[in-house]
Design brief:
The chain is an alpha/beta fold and 406 residues long. Helix content is 38%, strand content 16%. The radius of gyration is 21 Å and the shape is globular. The termini are far apart. The protein binds pyridoxal-5'-phosphate.
Length: 406
């Protein structure tokens, strides 16, 4: 008799965005005349930058001719793209990352979700609270947690993000083996300083832990003192893996291209205490389970690194950041305390009330979709997230509806 992976039974009934979609669908069918404005899920609305489209076309044209056609590509990504990433995203910021430490993929969601499988089933894992749900759920599926109880999974170390720590949790007092960090943060929009990341790097060295650093939103940083990469911190090459994505930075949510950086120095230990290069384990994993990203997507991604591509993505992030400023100013004007919206496309708003009730209120009275903080963890209760990813007119309209409704 075929049986299921019992760990799946521990998962909370519904993925946050599935629950939201259900409530929005119910509202829409009850109010067909009142179009909702979505500032909920973090999805971009602008078309691909023209430079990327040109790169895409070039790749397709090559695939359409026998002379230039390419079949299976390298699982790690084409060298032309990995070289551009190493130079444009790291060397130019003073970080030493080699092209063979970069693994191109179809998403940071997949990579942050898959990476845990390189490690033992009995390691201790720390996650921020509130948190991007992928980090947690993938470890639940892998059997690294106990059951869901009182809003949390047994066996995980939760790192509370609070107004007191500016939503940048410090390292815990106990040792853990694997830590997930994300800055600029989803959902809180908080950013970490070099000093704060240095504390985490020192902690990881001390307890022989690995930090999985999600930098999906680094493109939104405008404050020059803030680190874009964890490799701007001394010692990070030994203890940190970094995830990046073109999804939010270059409008690739529907085109799919991301990458993961695993420096040669990052080590994990076997049962006999022998150190193994995590880079080689990830390479082995990707070679076995992944076929690489489609060639035209990689030529499109490469074009994002051209001077024109960079200008275009900068203009897009400027646009979304201007939306974020409007959102933050409006909500502050209504008397709410806000985090994020500066160096980040998300505004995290303290409502002080039940966050699903606030979500329902904004949906029913303003026809605007936001995200209830409770969906991101126990410490998200009393907060909501508003995303800046939409057209200016829609954001302005949503904010005036919210102003009228609240
Ligand atoms: C959107 C997002 C990503 C990017 O995911 P992709 O799979 O590359 O689209 C990664 N991490 C966080 C926290 C995100 O919000």
């Amino acid at each position: 008799m075929i049986r299921i992976n019992e760990h799946y039974r521990k998962l909370k009934a519904s993925y946050l965005f599935v629950e939201i979609a259900g409530r929005v669908a119910a509202y829409e069918s009850a109010h067909p005349d009142r179009p909702v404005i979505k500032l909920g899920i973090g999805d971009v609305t602008h078309a691909l930058p023209p430079a990327a489209v040109e790169g895409f076309r070039k790749g397709i044209t090559e695939q359409a001719n026998d002379e230039t056609f390419r079949g299976y590509g390298p699982e790690q990504g084409y060298e032309f793209l990995r070289d551009l990433i190493a130079k444009g995203d790291f060397a130019e910021r003073g970080c030493e990352i080699a092209a063979d430490e970069i693994f191109v993929s179809d998403g940071a969601k997949c990579d942050t979700g898959n990476f845990q499988e390189l490690f033992s089933a009995d390691i201790t894992i720390a996650v921020p609270d509130p948190v991007y749900p992928v980090y947690v759920d993938t470890n639940v599926m892998a059997g690294r947690t106990g059951i869901w109880r009182d809003g949390r999974y047994d066996g995980l170390v939760y790192l509370p993000g609070t107004p007191e720590n500016g939503f940048v949790p410090p390292p815990p007092s106990e040792p853990v083996d694997l830590v997930y960090l994300c800055f600029p943060n989803n959902p809180t929009g908080a950013t970490a300083t070099k000093e704060q990341l240095a504390e985490w790097v020192a902690y990881a060295h001390r307890v022989k832990a690995i930090i999985l650093f999600d930098a999906a939103y680094e493109q939104f940083i405008r404050d020059d003192s803030l680190p874009h990469s964890i490799y701007e911190i001394d010692g990070a090459r030994e203890v940190a893996v970094e995830f990046r994505s073109l999804s939010k930075t270059a409008g690739f949510t529907g085109t799919r291209c991301a990458y993961t950086v695993v420096p040669h120095e990052v080590k994990a230990f076997d049962s006999e205490g022998t150190a193994h290069a995590v880079r080689d384990l990830w390479n082995r994993r990707q070679s076995t389970k992944f076929n690489g990203v489609s060639y035209p997507v990689q030529t499109a991604a490469a074009a994002v690194f051209s001077p024109r591509g960079r200008e275009e993505i900068r203009a897009r992030s400027d646009y979304y950041l201007a939306n974020a400023t409007l959102i933050r100013e409006t909500m502050e004007g209504l008397g709410y305390e806000c985090t994020g919206g500066i160096n980040s496309p998300y505004v995290w708003i303290r409502t002080g009330t039940d966050s699903w009730a606030f979500f329902d209120d904004v949906l029913n009275r303003a026809g605007v979709v936001i995200t209830p903080g409770a969906g991101f963890g126990l410490h998200g209760e009393g907060y909501v997230r508003i995303s800046a990813f939409n057209d200016r007119e829609k954001v302005t309209e949503a904010l005036s509806r919210i102003r009228a409704a609240l």
